[in-house]
Amino acid sequence: MSKTSNPGNPGTSDEPAVTAADTGKGAGANKGAGAGAEGAAGLTARLDQAQPYALGLFRIVAGLLFACHGAASLFGVLGGSKGGGTVDMGTWPGWYAAVIQLVAGGLVLLGLGTRSAAFLASGSMAYAYFKVHQPEGLFPLQNGGELSALFCWVFLLLVFTGPGALALDRLFGTGTRDGADATAREGKAAEHGEREEQGTPVTA
What we know:
Helix content is about 70%, strand content about 0%. By secondary structure, the chain is mostly helical. It has one domain. The chain starts with 19 loop residues before the first helix and ends in a 6-residue tail after the last helix. Belongs to the DoxX family.
């Protein structure tokens, strides 16, 4: 109920009165917004905590697929090379490319010497794209080089990110910096999640 303006009575005004119901609605809206923000922050913390494992799974799948290409070309398994056979030993560049695919792909799969193996794999795919596919057309869809381009960028990404979780690099200490960075991220994400649950302010 609002008060009406009365020039003869200075105690009245045109502004509506604030009721207890209005105050309750505002408090409820603020509480709901706060709960939503806390939920989003908690989800972000959990995703950050799972990031090394997602990267590790990404690395394993990429390495497995790459190694399968090499095995198919060298040994005729999984359908063999193009035409169903194998590449002749020592032929350039097919045989050498297959060896790189098998060895580098296996190392990436295991997470052993990940950055070096990924760099070699990325370089081999860049060579394959520009030497074999690029002369056939400007774009990957035209020259059939989509797979070479994709593998090139996938392995180049791993050069910068490192192996992630589930890697022998971390077990043997050859990826110490990767492991330390990942452990620090996991610890910070876990601490963030605990503070959010306890309602403690989180500082950067």
